[in-house]
Amino acid sequence: MKALTVEATIENIETVTGFVTEELERINCPVKTQAQISIAIDELFGNIVHYAYQPEVGTATIKLYTEENPLTVIIIFSDNGIPFNPLMQAEPDIHAGIESRQVGGMGIFLVKKLMDLVEYSYRDGQNILLIRKTIA
User: Fold this and answer.
1) Closest by CA position to 75, among listed 29, 28, 132
2) Would you say the C-alpha torsion 65, 107, 104, 58 has a positive or negative sign?
3) Taking Cα atoms as reference points, which of 27, 43, 116, 112 lies closest to residue 77?
4) Which domains does the chain possess?
5) Percent helix, strand and coil across the chain, each rounded to 5?
6) Pairing of strands 2-7, 126-134
7) CA 80: distance to chain centroid?
8) Residue 38 belongs to what H/E stretch?
9) 56 CB neighbour count, 10 Å cutoff
10) pLDDT score of 105
11) φ, ψ for residue 69, nearest 5 deg
């Protein structure tokens, strides 16, 4: 397991993505899968930045695990911000016209489509969001 704790600021999205990408490259993760995971990181860490602590700034911890047979990456985001389960939000109407579409929700929808598993829990004062992606 590898872990990184950073301030939940927009500037640190690049730090978090770099942290995960380094490990993905080490395990020879295909570029397409790396891109999918990067999209998920941008969305999930961005949500922490914009909603968990506002108007304050807190920290977020990202833990990365790998499993063998099949090769799988598990990334866990945790923060001590306001309890919020993004998976409970209504799915966006992707068939609605752009003018009538509700703002928000597309990012989590996309994460759920790109990852094999997305789970949320709130334990010990922490939001915990887990994503899993099988690589091979």
Assistant:
1) 132
2) positive
3) 43
4) 2-134 (3.30.565.10)
5) 40, 30, 35
6) unpaired
7) 15
8) helix 31-47
9) 8
10) 53
11) 50, 75
Total number of residues shown for the chain: 136
Residue with tokens 């690049």: 14
Which SS3 state, helix, strand or coil, does residue 86 take?
helix
Q: What is the dihedral of CA 117, 122, 126, 127, to 10 degrees?
A: 40
pLDDT at 107: 82
| Model confidence at 26: pLDDT above 70 | yes
**Order of strands across the sheet with 2-7?**
2-7, 59-67, 72-79, 126-134, 117-123
Burial of 97 per CB tally in 10 Å (0-12, 13-18, 19+)? exposed
The angle, 0 to 180 degrees and rounded to 10, between the axes of the packed helices 106-114 and 31-47 is 140
Q: Who contacts 26 (Cβ-Cβ below 8 Å, separation ≥6)?
A: none
pTM of this structure? 0.88
The encoded tokens of residue 127 equal: 């939001």
